[in-house]
Amino acid sequence: MRQVGIKPVLKKMFALTAGVAISSLVFAHGDKKHEDDALEFDAVETEFGSYQPDLEATKTIEISMADTMRFSPAMLSIKSGDVVKFLVSNEGALQHEFVLGTPDSLAEHAELMIRFPNMEHEEPYMAHVDPGKEMEIVWQFTTAGKFEFGCLLPGHFQAGMKGTITVE
Question: Domain 33-167 sits in which CATH superfamily?
Fold first, then answer.
């Protein structure tokens, strides 16, 4: 009879648990898409601002996305405290997304999207927009600094599909 030590068993349990945890994070957002107008989010506080379900926009900014892997406009200046409604339209034939974040968080997330291209995610600071459609994001910029927005679909961010936000 072969004896199994506790360390190999613990290693297998840890590997299995880590695999389940990672896969649940990667696919945690289920089948619900942003096109569903009934999406509701809980309050979120980040380095680049915050979201509350009852936010009322003080400013509207229209952003268009194109298959040239560019946003228009690609540079924004916003005052700290502004509540911005982004009206994001996809003018191309490919799906695109608009995701707010820090330069580091967007670059890291873009790399994850290359490794896990079917990853689905839903947060109040992102919109997945089908060709010919538009979506809205309402976000409050609470901290001064330099932030970004980008399309994190595999290859889009790497092709230059990003923009900058200066919050003063």
Answer: Cupredoxins -  blue copper proteins (2.60.40.420)
